[in-house]
């Protein structure tokens, strides 16, 4: 079954129609970019995938199961756009931040798994940040912080990651390397990736699929396309 299957969903915020009859699929192994102008419903679509809001019509299946009955939210990691707003003065080390992704999984009052150090190291290696474990998160660049937040999501061993505009806050010259890291995660660690992005030109040769909300974006180079 597809990891995500959305059929004919619509969503309204009071008067605003945010999504109108959208259908799409995410298959295992995909690296999907969701594109669209501001206000086209990208964030709303992610919130529906994450089960944070319910569509007013249509259906959504996660791993073949109706989202109402889906019991494995930990299979779907999420890195929000605002997660890199830890500002200066925040005292945590990178290791603590990444281990926080396990605390959430274990529940507040349960013990962390004994393998926590190994799991944190493995997650940090997969984002190319293993040299930074003992650094303070606040002294890292925007791009390094974003990699740490991805490691924080990966440490719980999700099958897929949903990323909301992951390159916001990354210096222009580091964006290519960041997408190379995501492409390697996708190919080598078999993490299915869904991301909202505006980096149309940069992502074309890394992604496997694209979904466009509103049909105002046209670009070349992707391998397959479905219109939502
Ligand atoms: P995008 O992420 O593509 O910018 P959004 O999903 O954030 O689009 O928004 C889609 C539409 O819904 C926009 O017109 C936006 O103004 C509106 N919208 C988003 N969130 C809310 C909200 N909480 N209340 C009312 N309108 C909203
Ligand atoms: P994003 O960049 O992820 O689309 P925004 O910065 O546009 O998010 O919006 C931040 C929050 O404000 C979101 O939770 C969104 O639902 C809400 N929001 C967006 N547009 C509106 C709106 N027109 N009215 C009320 N809330 C909105």
TrEMBL record:
Record carries keyword Manganese: no
Alphabetized InterPro entries for the sequence: AAA+_ATPase, ABC_transporter-like_ATP-bd, ABC_transporter-like_CS, Metal_Ion_Import_ABC, P-loop_NTPase
The keyword Cell inner membrane belongs to this UniProt entry's keyword annotation: no
Any one Gene Ontology molecular-function term assigned to this protein's record: ATP binding
Keywords on record: ATP-binding, Nucleotide-binding, Transport
Domain ABC transporter residue range list: 4-228
PANTHER family xref list: METAL TRANSPORT SYSTEM ATP-BINDING PROTEIN TM_0124-RELATED (PTHR42734:SF17)
Similarity field: Belongs to the ABC transporter superfamily.
Descriptive protein name: Zinc ABC transporter ATP-binding protein
Lineage of producing organism: Bacteria, Bacillati, Bacillota, Bacilli, Bacillales
């Amino acid at each position: 079954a597809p990891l995500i299957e959305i059929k004919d969903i619509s969503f309204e915020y009071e008067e605003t129609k945010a999504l109108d009859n959208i259908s799409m699929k995410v298959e295992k192994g995909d690296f999907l970019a969701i594109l669209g102008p501001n206000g086209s419903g990208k964030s709303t679509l992610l919130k529906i995938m994450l089960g944070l809001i319910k569509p007013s019509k249509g259906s959504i299946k996660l791993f073949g199961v109706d989202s109402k009955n889906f019991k494995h939210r930990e299979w779907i990691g999420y890195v929000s756009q605002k997660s890199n707003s830890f500002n200066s003065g925040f005292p945590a080390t990178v290791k603590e931040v990444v281990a926080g992704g396990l605390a959430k999984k274990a529940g507040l009052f349960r013990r962390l798994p004994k393998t926590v150090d190994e799991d944190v190291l493995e997650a940090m290696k997969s984002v190319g940040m293993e040299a930074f474990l003992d650094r303070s998160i606040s002294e890292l660049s925007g791009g390094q912080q974003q990699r740490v937040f991805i490691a924080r999501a990966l440490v719980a061993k999700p099958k897929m990651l949903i990323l909301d505009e992951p390159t916001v806050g990354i210096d222009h010259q580091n964006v290519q390397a960041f997408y190379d890291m995501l492409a390697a995660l996708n190919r080598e660690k078999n993490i299915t990736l869904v991301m909202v992005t505006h980096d149309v030109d940069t992502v074309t040769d890394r992604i496997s699929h694209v979904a466009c909300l509103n049909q105002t974006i046209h670009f070349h180079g992707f391998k397959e396309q479905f219109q939502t």
